[in-house]
Amino acid sequence: MSEQGRNGAAAYVPQPGDFEFLTGRDIATDKNFSSLSYWKGVAIHFFKDKKAVTGLVIILAIMLLSIFGPMMNSYGYRDIVSFRNENNRKVVAKGIAPRIPAVHELFTGEKYDDDFADLTFFFGTDDLGRDLWTRTWYGARVSLIIAFVTIFIDMLIGMSYGLISGYFGGLTDQVMQRFVEIANSVPRLVIVSVLAIFMPKGMGLVIVALLLTEWIGMSKIARAEMLKTKEQEYVLASRTLGARNGHIIFSQILPNTIGPIITQVMFSIPIAIFTEAFLSFVGVGIALPQCSVGTLIEDGFNNITTLPYQILPPIIVLALLMLGFNFIGDGLREALAPKLEDM
Amino acid sequence: MSEKKPGLNQSAGKTILEIRDLDISFKTNAGTIHAIRGVNLDLCKGETVAIVGESGSGKSVTMKAVMGLLDSNASVNSGEILYTYPDASGREVTVDLLKMPKKQLRQQINGQRIAMVFQDPMTSLDPTMTIGKQIMEGMFLHENMEKKAARARALELLNLVGITDAEKRFRNYPHQLSGGMRQRVVIAIALSANPDILICDEPTTALDVTIQARILELIMEIQKKMGLSVVYITHDLGVVAKVADYVDVMYAGKIVEVGNVNEIFYEPKHPYTWGLLSAMPDLETEDDRLYSIPGSPPNLLHEPKGDAFAARNQFALAIDEKAEPPLFQVSPTHWAATWLLHPDAPKVEMPPELQARLERARKEAEKVL
Amino acid sequence: MTKYVLKRIGTALLTLLIITFLLFLLVRIMPGNPFPSERMSADMIANKRAEMGLDDPIPVQFFNYLRKLLLEGDFGNGTSLYYGVPINSVLATCMSNSFRIGGMAILIGTALGLLLGITAALNRGKFLDGFCTVLSIIGVCVPSYVFLIFLQYYFSFRIPFFPYFFDAKRFLFSSVIPSLSLSLFTLSTIARFTRNEMVEVMDSDYVHLAEAKGLHGGSLVRRHVLRNALIPIVTVLAPLIVDLLTGALVVEKIYGINGIGKLMVDAITGEGIDYNYVLALGILYSALYIGIMLLVDILYGVLDPRIRVQGKAGDA
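Predict the joint structure of the above. Result:
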């Protein structure tokens, strides 16, 4: 027998003891894939995805700012910043461009020489003298709350509808699906316009409009998942063992549906934010002096020729919210059903 | 021709494909996967080589490299793939397929000299094009054939691969054919430009058992008729026993044992080959449980230290965790990369159950002859 | 195939009929007075109601409405102060404006989107691919009215090159800004979808088989990649077309375009528009939506032989 080194690599010179058998090892357990639960795997995959993590960071940052941002100065979202200057004249901080006095001094070596020389306005003030930093984060908070609440309710409606339709099948399913088909063929705007005759303008209109449209996607996912799971052995088994319908649905099928549904939620939230922004922009959403991202953009638009900086913060926040949720959604979708080559 | 390296089929035939020290890695989100770690392989004219191994051992990647079909995130770190063929004047030319520009590779090699049959016939035909067009495409491309002649040849090929109503099938779309028929069409496409080498990537795994045997017989028959050299990629040792002259056993991006089909089946030396053979279903075995190799192949995101198989090897030695075993020669045609073959190693025989099984198989084979 | 098409048309018509009825029902049972009542006496209102058939049972009213609509294309008259003219004449003008601007946006968006998506897929991982990704993210994350606001601010206000508001007399020139801003969403959606679809097709077995046959470069892309990648794009295009043809609401409102989008905004905000308009718009929007979806379904069937050519053969 001969031995030859390959690839020109320096051949290893065996040491004494090298040719002993290895003992005390457990070769029966698969160490590559062992002890990793499904959700842990999903989490690992998700956090390896740079886009998903970016999305998560963006959304968390905006959430934190929308909670704590308004507290970072003493102005309320509806307060007009005003005080009496040394001549005892009342001045209102109307239309002030974004400024941080310390930074200004650092770069120009000069102080502002107006009445507000010491005041910091990260995003400036609007035409009435309200602090835009506070208003932006307050508006983001309102938009986020509307989106989360409506999409959560949509999730409940959609899931129940889809799960029931898929589980009972037959005539129930057919009737329920015809209804979904028709509901799905009515454009969202038509629903909004009809609603607008019935309901007063305001937050309620936005929420109901979203409730009526966004559940459909969720119900489709839930139904498909139900149809898939229903025929699997463990469900059939528990059925034969006499488990009741409701029990089977909620204890066994729900955990499987939750992944795709959360993904759908991540894609629905930006749609909700978009719709809210649109309706508020048009003027049927959030009523003054409350504000949301949409009304802030509208304010900015109305003042664009005089205070062009005013429109930027709400637009950037809106875009980042869209971006963040879409990234999280993409990441979740891939983490839940990873393609083989990414493993 | 380059000098013979260890671990290659030392057949008397003329070598037409030589893979030397091939090293390929893939960039993924999770990191770099070192999928092929120095593969050597020879294919001689008219012969059949089978590459065997579990999924993810790198057998498909190796052959995709030959075809120039590596995914865009792959990078070839080193090695060469030498292909020898007679050029237009009949002179022997040797080219390195890895260095050839893609365009030239497609124009001169793919299709007309080296062809490939893919694993899943359900996905390997273009759903939007008729069968006939897909078969004729290669002919128009390489041979500038006239439409009429191409059509006649395509029908002839369809007959050759055993499709009965060729005229009708010619106008069909892939979704109108069954899996077995589609695989026949794929084979017809591969044969359409008279290749020297046919690479079959698990050509029968996606088909049901009765059709598997027919497809294999078809390939062997055509091989004889046309003097093809064939490379099989498979994890099914049953297929190997049936078709192969030489066998390369691959594990974690390396060839760990190579020999002719008798050597691999009756005198395997590598514990991994033992495992593969033991895992073959067998009617005679008394034990009613089917053996499977414990564990799973290593994740090549992390470079294995020492012998990549050590963690799953019940005969692992201390040295396996320190150094990678070189290929030890067993016979002029038989090599295996395991420290068990080192002169200082303790003498280890294959498990007795396997020995008994192989003995029975040998007797069976002799009876047939 | 014919059977499939007929069935789809049947379902679509039925769905539309049901939706029309529901809309009619909702609008007719609406509380409140359909007439601006300050200057009308109770008698006048009663007469008017009788004249308009508002006292008939709802099914009769619906039947009459439908008959008029189908036979004469008549949506009835508007009843409010501003729009007290035949609705279809208003709709005709608005539709013409919206369809022309929306059509341009679709053309620009689809053409550039396809171009960008295809180039990005062919240069995967290179600069252009990254550019395509960034652009499509921006296009999807920023509403089109924001683009309009910016374009209007910079190119109509700061540099007064384009008109600040829409001007029907200079149609083409004043459609540049709204069409461009509307096209960005289409562009980015199509670019992203095309790119991903192409990449997937290029990694498919059948493209590898074509490569193994010896095809490469342009002919490979033309013969095998494009056709397979573009068929599914028809499906994403449909909702985009509906959105654009029916007018991107805020864009029309901001830029002062007299289109159905603006009409819809007026309907939603209740600015001088009455119930008959809401009904007409609802029917129009639903019909367009259902019609285009139907068209896409049929087109898909024509393009994809897996739907067009039925029938399976026996096993080998």
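The first strand of chain A starts at residue 2 and ends at 4.
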